[in-house]
Amino acid sequence: MKNDNKKKMRNRKQDDRKREKQEERNFKDQVEGRNSVLELLESKKDINKIFITKGERHGSINKIIAIAKERKVIIVEKDKRKMEEMAQTQNYQGVIAIVPPFEYCEIEDILEEAKNKNEEPFILILDGIEDPHNLGSIIRTAETAGVHGIIIPKRRAAAVNSTVNKVSAGAVEYMKIARVTNISEAIGKLKKEGLWICGTDINTDKYYYNQDLTGALGIVIGNEGNGISDKVRKNCDFLVKIPMKGKVTSLNAAVSTGIIVYESVKQRLK
């Protein structure tokens, strides 16, 4: 039995290393799609180079070229085949920007963001969101709702890459994201700063709209399949759930995030 456990642990570590290496090869410094590249240009963030499909000179591509020239960003035209080889998403819309790798921040930077806005900290904690499309949607929702920052784990979770950037419609350029080794430790740090931690769990009795979601708050959203881990659940101050009336008893993680985050926004506006 002990040998089996050791073998499982060894295989798990090997899988983690493979995943990390894959992430390094995954062009995390690449932003694709017209809206995402426009958002990037308008955010004034550094851009190394912009690649455009040869012959693409219509619609918003012209605006991208004009702003890029104004900012003195290098523009390179490539034929369609080479662009398709470079693209990490199917719908790259004829434009790919190469940027420095995404700069994650520290938890302290998120708290400072709230302080600078003279607002109570409003933070999302993602416990193992694996789908980059979900992560992108969550970032987009968080940015529109005025969330000060997002905390994600370094392992067994989606990182910010070109897909995340595209799905977020460029919202990653305006959102502070901290990547931490241990989510439970991050929650402990937030508690010391006076935040209440709200977990989401289908097995609790309290509905999200009956809970006070104002003040300094961290909302934990769990993994798409397994929800929040036992250790993280125990570190939450309270748990809430969304009522399920149909035959399907779970919601997409990004949809759940939107429902609960905007309930907090509604309560804060009263």
Short description:
The chain has 270 residues and is an alpha/beta fold. 42% of the residues lie in helices and 17% in strands. The chain has two domains: 30-98, Ribosomal protein L30/S12 (60s Ribosomal Protein L30, Chain: A, 2-Layer Sandwich); 107-269, Alpha/beta knot (3-Layer(aba) Sandwich).
Oligomer: single chain
Query: Which superfamily, in CATH terms, is the homologous superfamily of the largest domain?
Result: SPOUT methyltransferase, trefoil knot domain
Q: Major beta sheet, specifics?
A: 6 strands, parallel
Helix content: 40-55%
The share of residues in extended strands comes to 15-25%
Strand order, biggest sheet?
A: 7-6-5-9-8-10
CATH class descriptor name of the largest domain: Alpha Beta
How many domain units? 2
Radius of gyration: 20 Å
CATH topology of the largest domain: Alpha/beta knot
Structural topology:
Elements: H1 2-24, E1 30-32, H2 34-42, E2 49-53, H3 60-70, E3 75-78, H4 80-86, E4 95-98, H5 107-116, E5 122-127, H6 132-145, E6 149-153, H7 162-167, E7 177-180, H8 183-192, E8 196-200, E9 217-222, H9 230-235, E10 238-240, H10 253-269
Parallel strand pairs: 2-3, 5-6, 5-9, 6-7, 8-9, 8-10
Antiparallel strand pairs: 1-4, 2-4
Helix pairs in contact: 2-3, 6-10
